[in-house]
Amino acid sequence: MFTVILTWRGNEFGEGNLLSRALVEGGIPSLVKLLNQDFAGLFARDTLEPILGGVLMKDAQYQIAFHSSLAARHENSATLPTPAPEQDAIYADEASKHAYLTSKMRRQLAEGGRIGVTRAPPR
Questions:
Q1: What residues have CB less than 8 Å from 111, skipping those under 6 apart?
Q2: pLDDT digits (tens, 9 = 90+) for 2-37
């Protein structure tokens, strides 16, 4: 598995980017597929599946997982399932954030941004 960090002229962008703390289960091929397909369909609801107890939602098309409250939420140091009636609003909010961050990443890459990849430590 890989942790992906978006870099700009050698400096990390930090928390405000699409791939900050993303879990790229498919490794470099998944990242290349995402870029080659220009992020098409990323975070589409029908491609999402919960992993790690629902703390992450994995986009099955790209094998990239993101932190999410869609399937589980943190409350008083516990991870609890998100009630079904709340999931539509949560998805709409998270999809909007992903759309914004995808647009931002496209712009940053067009301006010369680079993607640095680091391997996650073994478990």
A1: none
A2: 555 544 444 455 556 788 778 888 888 888 899 999
pLDDT above 70 coverage of the chain, percent = 80
> CB–CB of 102/39 below 8 Å?
yes
Handedness of CA 107, 108, 110, 115 (dihedral sign): negative
Residues linked to residue 7 through DSSP beta bridges, in sequence order = 12, 114
